[in-house]
Design a protein that fits this description.
mainly beta
Length: 126
């Protein structure tokens, strides 16, 4: 991982690292991106207008702080805790398979303060 981005949602900002996957590279090339957020349990997601196919290693099982891309919704997904699909272990679980595109650098817990509809901005960090 090497491409650093800043995710800003209202008053909350976190740094993240995108991996070297083709999907993460397509998102990097589209930056900056700004749109309204949606929340689903401890997941923030939003349509970014980038079109990527489902990767061979896509899955619905993630770790806290992981970033995903959900092809049917062209959605950037940020997982910071349990979702409605989580099992008793409390790990995030997506509603469907997502491409694994990176992770939050550090503590993702501040994202719990992000509410539906707040503007989210993804920008490159040089």
């Amino acid at each position: 991982m090497g491409k650093r981005i800043l995710i800003t949602a209202g008053d909350v900002s976190v740094e993240a690292l995108l991996n070297d996957s083709p999907c993460a590279s397509a998102i990097w090339d589209a930056l900056p991106i700004e749109c309204a957020s949606n929340t689903w349990g401890n997941e923030i997601y939003f349509n970014i207008g980038v079109n990527c196919p489902l990767a061979d290693d896509a899955s619905d099982e993630l770790e806290v702080g992981e970033l995903g891309y959900w092809p049917p919704g062209r959605a950037f997904c940020i997982f910071f805790g349990p979702t409605p699909m989580s099992e008793p272990d409390g790990k995030p679980r997506a509603a469907g398979d997502v491409n694994h595109i990176g992770r939050i650098a550090g503590d993702a817990s501040s994202l719990r303060f992000v509410v539906d509809g707040v503007t989210v901005r993804l920008s490159a960090i040089d």
